[in-house]
Amino acid sequence: MKRYVYINDDESLQELYCDNQISNRKYTVLNFLPKNLWEQFSRFMNQYFLLIACLQLWSLITPVNPASTWGPLIFIFAVSASKEAWDDYNRYLSDKKANEKEVWVVRQGIKKHVQAQDIHVGNIVWLRENDEVPCDLVLIGTSDPQGLCYVETAALDGETDLKTRVIPSACMGIDFELLHKIKGVIECPNPDKDIRRFDANLRLFPPFIDNDVCPLTIKNTILQSCYLRNTEWACGVAVYTGNETKLGMSRGIPEPKLTAMDAMIDKLTGAIFVFQIVVVMVLGIAGNVWKDTEARKQWYVLYPYEGPWYELLVIPLRFELLCSIMIPISIKVSLDLVKSLYAKFIDWDNEMIDQETGIPSHAANTAISEDLGQVEYILTDKTGTLTENRMIFRRCCISGIFYGNESGDALKDVELLNAVAGSSPDVVRFLTVMAICNTVIPVKSKTGAILYKAQSQDEDALVNAAARLHVVYVNKNANILEIRFNGSVIQYEVLETLEFTSDRKRMSVVVKDCQNGKIILLSKGADEAILPYAYAGQQTRTFIEAVEQYAQLGLRTLCLAWRELKEDEYQEWSLMFKEASSTLVDREWRIAEVCQRLEHDFEILGVTAIEDRLQDGVPETIETLRKAGINFWMLTGDKQNTAIQIALSCNFISPEPKGQLLLIDGKTEDEVCRSLERVLLTMRITSSEPKDVAFVVDGWALEIALKHYRKAFTELAILSRTAICCRVTPSQKAQLVELLKSCDYRTLAIGDGGNDVRMIQQADIGVGISGREGLQAARAADYSIGKFRFLKRLILVHGRYSYNRTAFLSQYSFYKSLVICFIQIFFSFISGVSGTSLFNSVSLMAYNVFYTSVPVLVSVLDKDLSEGTIMQHPKILFYCQAGRLLNPSTFAGWFGRSLFHAIVVFVITIHAYAYEKSEMEELSMVALSGCIWLQAFVVALETNSFTILQHLAIWGNLVAFYVINWIFSAVPSSGMYTIMFRLCRQPSYWITMFLIVAAGMGPVLALKYFRYTYRPSKINTLQQAERMGGPILSLGNIEPQPRSVEKEVSPLSITQPKNRNPVYEPLLSDSPNTTRRSFGSGTPFDFFQSQSRLSSSYSRNCKDN
Amino acid sequence: MEMDTNGAGTSSAAAGGGGVSTSTSDSSSAAKRNSKKPKYSRFTQQELPACKPILTPGLVITTFTIIGIIFIPIGLVSLSASEHVVEIVDRYDEGCVPPNYSKNKLAYIQSSLTNKSCTRTLNVPKLMKSPVFIYYQLDNFYQNHRRYVKSRSDKQLRSKAYERDTKSCDPEGFVLDGPIVPCGLIAWSLFNDTYGFSVKSKMLEVNKKNIAWDSDKEHKFGSDVYPKNFQSGGLIGGAKLNSSIPLSEQEDLIVWMRTAALPTFRKLYGRIEEDLQANEQITVVIQNNYNTYSFGGKKKLVLSTTSWIGGKNDFLGIAYITVGGLCLFLAVSFILLYVIKPRPLGDPSYLSWNRSPSGHPN
């Protein structure tokens, strides 16, 4: 269960653990063919076709040339095999690139450049700034004297802020040179995929005197795929390598996704297969009976009296082969083809191009477009998905004066600009705090412009805003900061940085003004973490008002404050701080306590308001999709208040009178259980009311609920159309998706960051937003889009059309195969049930492959309703969601139609071509052309919109049928020499064709018309309205159109001013576990209080019960 | 409408428009935009101009009316053409068995000693214009039986070089002396009744030339392929062939080898190239050789004239009139339905979503 990693021991560990070769490949050159064939043949359809193809090799039973099955079969297999091969080759190339990357590794005490794949467990790996970490390392040294380094873990968990990692205490202070020679042993668990946990021990060997066991945590590691940032160098011991790293273990092979439609098609195929078996058995028995009674009398057949042992099987097998076309071999090829075209339409769609970046939408998975039309649940990330994840400084309130209220942008507010120009001391101090109270590092680019490297987007926004207001943070040199203001440079020396934690909700810096030697404390933080600590006598009412006002606008607020420190006060505190910083037990808590001692008696300078804008069109998109019957869940790592606030502003939940928010909380099992039951009860009661009820759950409660009360939570999930899950981890997101999937819901997960990757992979459909958090989500997703609002179009237009088209195409494929198969069956009754094929091999093959597949393929252009109509009536998606267009009953309709058409063709043919005209070849061509004519008209009748391509395909195909057959008829050696010429000269042939068409299509048309007019579906009604410009469309125009975001926010917030609780919060803080552990229940801050405040107002209803 | 960013008709440029913050439109993204933007075409945007017909009452009623109006005359014309065909059908398999064999017809037909001649008299009901086609009709004869229909070798028939290509001819492929030409059950069971016609003691000339398809004579049956070992095995099937005449000229065989798709079929025997007057008595001397008695098949002699629609077959005419009539009936009922129960198309009252469970399908 444990692994012992001997540091820097070149001999012992080479073979014990795998090297660092990453492999995402599925195949090798050698096993490709067998493995791929095995995979393909594990599908029932393929096994079936292979069996048929093998049976056809037996000439005694085959009705047609075996090539007619083998050809398409081999073609299909070759296509999918080469696709797999190509994908795998690309994976190989990307692996190779990663594997052959050069890294510095210590070998025999010397730093060497080796390829990443040659790293072994126990090796010491050296990284420089901005290097990607090649494998999981335990830090042993960094350039920072305090042993810190910064890593960006976005690729691992999607969190974009920089994380600090620290070297273990045992390695503290080891000389740079000695790091090469360090020896020791790390005792660590076997590889797992938990990226938050690493419980290990380190013991260094002499001469590194520290002989004690030193505990290691995840804080001491840097994991594969992270990037080293803002740290000159770092080195660490490889503990997990190759596919055994935390990343590699959590990678997993994403399962191929099967759409609901595919599943339905498979089911129908199974039904047809059963039907086929029944037919074969019946006909087989009938054939054998007929043979024994009648055929013996037919002397010209010369049946031998003693047959071989398998004689009884021959006729059933013949019928099996005759009926094998019931399951069309072409359906898979056709479906693959149209599916890739659906994907192309998504790629090509001009209206889904992100205008800002010019990135078009992309469908990486070409096989699941239909599922888009059947989505029932959308699980969405918040930051970067609903919001732009771009913080912009919008307003501020400085010593009671509001700036930016008129223009909505403080940077353009003339008053503020004047105040800056006039060096108003309050404003300058305010701006100074904005500029330097942070952990931002300014970097001069080559062009001379200053770029800021910020851990949080909020700080980035503030520093940039300060720079725009002429307080430019120019340089940071060791501990000296430089600020340029109105042409003069002011220098500050940073004495201490009191870092932000999500519990303190504020951060401070202590600086010394280099001009006058004053020591100043600069702070910024959430209102409740700053305002109560104002010095006695300061009026904070205006600031509270400002905070309220900004919060109502959906802005994130921060309060800025400062205080001048006395020299001795600072010195005294500084000692305490140093001591706290070096404690081993509960360090975080101790530090917080010490900070508290300094952070009081603030002079409040003002309030800033930062906007994390909702993306354009988010409220409208959510509203439209909810109208379409799709349920939304928001899964976010962010805190509850922020999540609720965003949810309100984007129509996710409705404000109080119309909507109701139920809270599931609690820290213990009992609490969670109670609140879950309470919510469930309320939910059951209100489920009949037209009220938007949503529940809110946080990660902690969710974990308990999923673990112990899964059943109750599942019921809740089914009842609730909306849910907000905050503070959830990536794996919890995936679990929620799993939960909904287990209830047989079609889920779509949309997200933009690496922390959404698992949920995206887990969901039926994963959509990634190629946003600012990088491309991990977009890469892992089935679809990547530039903006959240494209989701509307993706689902309503592309998903819906794809569903409709595939529904038609698949059922039609069965229909056309059944028609020809029924004719064969009918013919067998007049051919002595002997299994004669009426049609020749060429016709049979061409029927499925050419004659009938081309017209139906252009159904990919069919649109039953125009895009505008769908957008106005999104509820029409219900037909797709409920699978109204492809289900056993619609299929039964097609089945009946094929039976009817087969009867029409067969009866008319054998009667019109009776007696002297009953020549086999002619009759077979008459029947075949009858089928082709009917196909053309069936497709035409089922087509809703004819473009030029459809006309070409449908009627051109009919012409092509004759041309092809004329060509065959001109070849003397072909079976049908001159047949088609003969037929085409006969008036009776054409008369027969028209009769077949009229008799076959008349009832179908009449029935369709009747239903269309007197039993119209919603789709029909909309079609009628759309094409006649009826009242519905004009009604749609009156409907309130999407309003601007500003308007959207303000009326909502008025109803719920109390719950606005905007606080400064990094995008994604550390895991809740760590903060809980360190603070326990003694938290001085009101995280849980705020929750109870929430619950009191939201779940009033529950308490009444 | 102007804010409906994804709605139909609004240009794609508007989609990214309204209120995007200024900092985004820097030059680098503008450059990207040009390079990555897919080319616009109406096909890729699924915006090809399309005609979207809907089933309005007018359209449907008109269609059915037109079909009815066209079909009924065609039906009448076909029916009259079929009525103009004069056809004499005479079933002779029963009548040509001497009464003493009527209990054991099989013995009669299989015996080589019995007299197979048989005389039938046919009455011409109406004037039959030349040419009068002579067919023999077999009922309950499965030329389309799988075992039968496959038992031939097209290659062997076509050319002498493939004489030994008799794989598919089993069980009539080989005799001890070598391959049978033409091989297979079809050829082996060649029909061998013959007919002699006379009117008022005057023999009627029967033209047996050009009864087979020219294409068969020229391409399917070789002029260098002569019958060989035919009907020389233990079992004698049907007719024998003159081994000095190449297959391409054995027209009876060629006609027979065009297998029929139905168990009741007629095959051309020859033509009488003179008019037959109404009420004339035609005497037919039949050599009744072919065995249909074992399986209860009927044999009929058919004399028929022809028309543009072919032989006498009322099916098409009746079917056309029926279909046409039904179409008119449908048209009328739809009109009535429309008048009695008018229903405006696209009525929004049918769009009330509340009537259907719009929420959860499951």
UniProtKB/TrEMBL annotation, chain A:
Where it mainly occurs, coarsely classed, is membrane
* Ligand binding (ATP): 381-383, 459, 500, 524, 556, 636-638, 727, 733, 755-756
List its EC numbers: 7.6.2.1
**Cell compartments where the protein resides:** Endomembrane system; Membrane
One biological process term from GO is: phospholipid transport
Biased composition annotated in UniProt, kind: Polar residues: 1070-1081
**Residues that bind Mg(2+), according to the entry?**
381, 383, 752, 756
Q: Which cofactor does it need?
A: Mg(2+)
What SUPFAM superfamilies has UniProt attached to this entry? Calcium ATPase, transduction domain A (SSF81653), Calcium ATPase, transmembrane domain M (SSF81665), HAD-like (SSF56784), Metal cation-transporting ATPase, ATP-binding domain N (SSF81660)
Family in the record: Belongs to the cation transport ATPase (P-type) (TC 3.A.3) family. Type IV subfamily.
Official protein name in the record: Phospholipid-transporting ATPase
> Could you name the domain of life of the organism this protein comes from?
Eukaryota
Report keywords, A-Z: ATP-binding, Magnesium, Membrane, Metal-binding, Nucleotide-binding, Translocase, Transmembrane, Transmembrane helix
Q: Boundaries of each P-type ATPase A domain copy?
A: 99-162
Does Nucleotide-binding appear among the keywords?
yes
Identify the stretch annotated as signal peptide in this record.
none
Give the transmembrane ranges.
44-61, 268-290, 814-832, 844-861, 894-913, 925-941, 948-968, 988-1010
Q: Using the record's annotation, list all stretches that form the P-type ATPase N-terminal domain.
A: 5-70
The way it spans or sits in the membrane comes to: Multi-pass membrane protein
Kindly identify the residues recorded as the active site: 381
Q: Enumerate the catalysed reactions.
A: ATP + H2O + phospholipidSide 1 = ADP + phosphate + phospholipidSide 2
**GO CC annotations, alphabetized:** membrane
PANTHER family per record: PHOSPHOLIPID-TRANSPORTING ATPASE, PROBABLE PHOSPHOLIPID-TRANSPORTING ATPASE
List every stretch annotated Disordered. 1046-1084
Where does the P-type ATPase C-terminal domain lie?
Answer: 778-1017
Q: Output the Pfam families linked to this UniProt entry.
A: Cation_ATPase, E1-E2_ATPase, PhoLip_ATPase_C, PhoLip_ATPase_N
TrEMBL record, chain B:
The source's superkingdom equals Eukaryota
Q: Where can this protein be found?
A: Membrane
- Cross-referenced InterPro entries, in alphabetical order? CDC50/LEM3_fam (IPR005045)
Q: Transmembrane segments in this chain: where?
A: 59-81, 315-340
Amino acid composition bias (Low complexity), ranges on this chain? 21-31
Q: Which GO terms of the cellular component aspect does the record hold?
A: endoplasmic reticulum; Golgi apparatus; plasma membrane
**Disordered: region residues:** 1-42
Per the annotation, which location comes first and is thus the protein's main one?
Answer: membrane
The protein's UniProt keywords, in alphabetical order, are: Membrane, Transmembrane, Transmembrane helix
Coiled-coil intervals:
none
The record's annotation in PANTHER family points to: ALA-INTERACTING SUBUNIT, CELL CYCLE CONTROL PROTEIN 50
Family per record: Belongs to the CDC50/LEM3 family.
Record-given protein name? ALA-interacting subunit
